[in-house]
Amino acid sequence: MWHGVSNGLPDRGEFLMEGESWVVDSQDKAKMFCQFVMEQAKEETPRIYQIKYGNRSNKQSNALHLMFREVANALNDAGFGQPHPFNLDIQIPYTEEAVKTLFFQPIIKAMFDKTSTRKLDTKELSEASNYMLNAVAENSGVVIDFPHSLRNL
């Protein structure tokens, strides 16, 4: 839900984000959704429409981020860190976001020409995850098990 900035999210005014969701998987459904939006616009009540990609489930998305956290923790535990840009003597611990940005996103760009994890289908997600875990193991000696919820995608 969006409500002001009290939750740390960008200000969307004083509107609560609640309501309906539509699955648009055909041109007919797209036309119906557009008609719905046009009808709603006549009311002149502010609305927020958000696009969500249906490529993977929440469980798969959670497993992906669990893998990023596990990689970050394993690298940190093994003594690896990111060099500080201004002082190479300082090592910055890896985070979930750093693993995603530094390791995973370049892999999905190279393998599938995609820049967002949201745009990966389940097969691509599995392949890119395996590739990243293998690369981490080969380059650092740190072996991380593939999260069970990503294995059978």
The number of helices is 5
Structural class: mainly alpha
Distance between the ends: 30 Å
H-E string = HHEEHHH
Give the helix level as a range of percent.
Answer: 40-55%
- Characterize the main sheet: 2 strands, antiparallel
Number of β-strand runs? 2
Domain unit count: 2
Quaternary assembly: single chain
Shape: elongated
Low-confidence stretches: 1-17
Q: What does this 3D model show about the protein?
A:
This protein is mainly alpha-helical and 153 residues long. It has two domains: 1-52, no CATH class; 58-151, no CATH class. It has five helices and two strands. The chain has helices at residues 27-42, 58-77, 96-112, 122-140, 148-151, and strands spanning 82-83, 91-92. The protein has a two-stranded antiparallel ribbon. Strand 1 (82-83) and strand 2 form a beta hairpin. Helix 2 (58-77) packs across helix 3 and helix 3 (96-112) packs across helix 4 (122-140). It starts with 26 loop residues before the first helix and ends with a helix.
